[in-house]
Design a protein that fits this description.
Length: 83
């Protein structure tokens, strides 16, 4: 049989969870002006989103599908993939 990741098998669930996580993270950062980045995971939906100038929401996804990780430096946030 075919080996599908959770995100491939249930895209609507993953999309909805990722949207809720981003909304929560954005609201949390608005409440805490000193927070420049908020990192979350396990949604199977990788993202590096600048929610406002210089403030980042990072989610490398899930470690089992995609083998991704995120970095954040003075130039911004990026997603990478282990090879």
């Amino acid at each position: 049989g075919q080996n599908l990741s959770f995100g491939e098998a249930h895209p609507e669930i993953v999309r909805a969870a990722a949207e809720r996580q981003l909304a929560w993270a954005t609201a949390a950062m608005e409440l805490e002006p000193a927070v420049g980045a908020l990192v979350m995971g396990h949604t199977h939906a990788a993202a590096a989103i600048e929610t406002s100038p210089g403030r980042w929401y990072l989610n490398p996804g899930a470690w089992l599908d995609g083998h991704r990780y995120a970095t954040l430096d003075a130039d911004g946030a990026r997603l990478h993939q282990f090879s």
